[in-house]
Amino acid sequence: MSSIWQFLVSGGLFMFFIVLCSFVSVGVIVFKALDLREKSVMPESLVDVLTHPEVGAAHLRQAMTEGDSTLARISRTLLASRAETRDDASQSVQAAAREEVIHLERGIAVLEVIITIAPLLGLLGTVSGLVSVFGLLGNSGGEAPNPTQLALGISEALNTTIAGLAVAIYTVVAHSYFNKKVERFAARMESVLGKALATLFPSAAL
């Protein structure tokens, strides 16, 4: 534990900002993991009803009014639009879906910022540390520097780069995962709602 504390302290002020980035990143990751749960976005019970035309339009409309998932909110927009044709209903659904996808993407932009600034803070901390090390060498009055102290100073200066890259690596993984998950939800919702539209607006009614 003391070695970890020493590692953090050796980075100075820049390490503080990197640690702050790591806390923000972890917080956003936990938030998105909860926000993008399948039952919160596309519960299977509602998906089953919307994708089975044999349930009938009346039962379908009833299912659309229940729950507060992303899919349910889009479905209720369809009912509230009172569209008379499939084209009108489709446009209403697409507009609502775009808004909901933006809602699902909230927080992901924060991860993008951390991916960018965490390594930069690490490099800045390293450069600052190296400047201090070489400044001490310049003030040594021509005496040969102690190799051990020199190596120790350089290694401490590099700690911020290690920390910044470490934060960026797991944040990149989470950012990619959440982006793909939102894309997958969007594609699946498009398919599910397309089947629901076909049930509510059969070809014979066009």
Summarize the structure.
It contains nine helices and no strands.
How would you describe what is shown here?
The protein is mainly α and 206 residues long. Helices cover 82% and strands 0% of the residues. It is built from nine helices and no strands. Helix 6 (70-81) packs antiparallel against helix 7. It is rod-shaped, with a radius of gyration of 27 Å. The N and C termini lie far apart (70 Å). The mean pLDDT is 82.
What are the main properties of this structure?
206 residues; mainly alpha; rod-shaped
List the helices and strands and how they pair.
Blueprint (H helix, E strand, L loop, with lengths): L1 H9 L1 H24 L2 H4 L2 H7 L6 H8 L5 H12 L4 H19 L3 H31 L8 H54 L6
Helix pairs in contact: 2-8, 2-9, 6-7, 7-9, 8-9
Order of helices and strands: HHHHHHHHH
End-to-end Cα distance, whole Å, is 70 Å
Specify the oligomeric state. single chain
Query: Helical segment tally?
Result: 9
Percentage of β-strand residues:
under 5%
Strand element count: 0
Tell me about the biggest sheet? none
Q: Percent range for helical residues? A: over 70%
